[in-house]
Specification:
230 residues; alpha/beta; 4-stranded antiparallel β-sheet; globular
Length: 230
């Protein structure tokens, strides 16, 4: 972990998906050990914001910065310092649990994975089991081991506790607490309750684009309005 004076921030970030404005004016700043929870109904832009923060989507406005430097200037460096776990599982049917871990480590440039990763998420007894035989909750836990397979300062997580039982959700909270204690940062989009003491919360619904602006944007498509107002 970088620790020290590391900072991760968003400055008035806006998003358009499929020519539809989704949100605007999202700002926050995280330091070592910091956490942010994204709340809001489906369609409010939680997943889109996470993808922007990961560098997978380009913001329609504003910027994302690491130590004050625009992330777009160093996209490869940013991807190397963050882990993104979406709400869909990245589990291959033919690969065993252990083989998934080795693959994820290699993808980040590491020849060797960390120790006790499977134990942290109660997957030790499933190490040699192919992905096609795992339950939904086991696949979710396997996806989460990507966070531990290689070090990263920033964790970006979309509905991480979906399909997890209470014991597994508690293990996830422990993993998050340990990550933050080491100076790591986390941004979590979730509908569920999750223990992230001291975390900031953003209600994405408060950053939605008003209906009159949406209608104006639609009229702009036919040359009838000023799209730039939003």
């Amino acid at each position: 972990m970088d620790g020290g004076g590391t900072s991760f921030e968003a400055r008035e970030v806006a998003c358009i998906r499929g020519e539809r404005p989704v949100f605007r004016d999202v700002s926050f700043a995280l330091g070592p050990g910091g956490a942010l929870i994204l709340r809001g109904p489906n369609g409010s832009g939680k997943s889109s914001l996470l993808r922007i923060l990961a560098g997978f989507l380009r913001p329609a406005g504003g910027m994302v910065a690491w130590n004050g430097e625009n992330m777009r200037e160093t996209p490869e460096a940013h991807r190397a310092r963050c882990h993104y776990v979406g709400h869909l599982e990245a589990v291959k049917p033919a690969l065993t649990v252990s083989e998934h871990l080795a693959f994820w480590a290699a993808a980040k440039g590491f020849a060797k994975i960390g120790e006790n990763i499977l134990a942290a998420l109660d997957l030790e007894e499933l190490a040699d089991v192919p992905g096609r035989f795992l339950s939904a909750g086991q696949k979710r836990r396997l996806s989460l081991t990507r966070l531990l397979a290689t070090p990263a300062d920033l964790w970006l997580m979309d509905e991480p506790s979906i399909t997890l039982d209470s014991n597994s959700a508690a293990r996830l909270e422990t993993v998050l607490a340990q990550h933050r204690a080491g100076g790591g940062m986390a941004v979590v989009a979730t509908h569920a309750d999750i223990a992230l003491p001291g975390a900031e919360t953003i209600d994405m619904a408060r950053h939605g684009v008003p209906i009159d602006v949406l209608l104006g944007a639609q009229r702009e498509a036919t040359g009838e309005s000023d799209y730039g107002q939003w």
